[in-house]
From TrEMBL:
InterPro entries: Glyas_Bleomycin-R_OHBP_Dase, Glyas_Fos-R_dOase_dom, VOC_core
Residue intervals of the VOC domain: 4-114
Protein name per UniProt: Catechol 2,3-dioxygenase-like lactoylglutathione lyase family enzyme
UniProtKB keywords: Dioxygenase, Lyase, Oxidoreductase
Oxidoreductase recorded as keyword: yes
Length: 115
């Protein structure tokens, strides 16, 4: 299993203001689902940041997203370790397979792969 990207997720009700601010820093909007908006660097597309009002299908808003090449392997490893699964592995309507796990610092990590 390998990591493809790591992206901070900031819970926010100031999405429009964030859009304006991060565009000043050179980011471009690459995704907007209404409840989550993601911005990326045009020159380094894996450099991303997301702003989320609240998660559409999960009980909590994650702090970080980690995209991996094999989310099923990641889920098995995390589950077998005894870590707290916050949101069980599932396929989402917007094209990702994901789960949430709580890290040793209490942060909620959204682990995903694109389908």
């Amino acid at each position: 299993m390998s990591v493809r990207r790591v992206m901070p997720v900031i819970q926010s009700n100031a999405v429009e203001e964030s859009r304006e601010f991060y565009e000043l820093l050179g980011f471009e909007e690459v995704m907007d689902h209404g409840w989550i908006v993601t911005f990326a660097s045009p020159s380094t597309p894996a450099a991303q940041i997301s702003f989320m009002t609240s998660d559409k299908t999960a009980p909590v808003t994650p702090d970080v997203s980690v995209e991996v090449d094999d989310v099923d392997a990641a889920y098995a490893a995390v589950r077998d370790s005894g870590a707290e699964i916050v949101h069980d592995l599932r396929d989402e309507d917007w094209g990702v397979r994901r789960f949430f796990v709580r890290d040793p610092n209490g942060r909620v990590i959204n682990v995903l792969s694109h389908r």
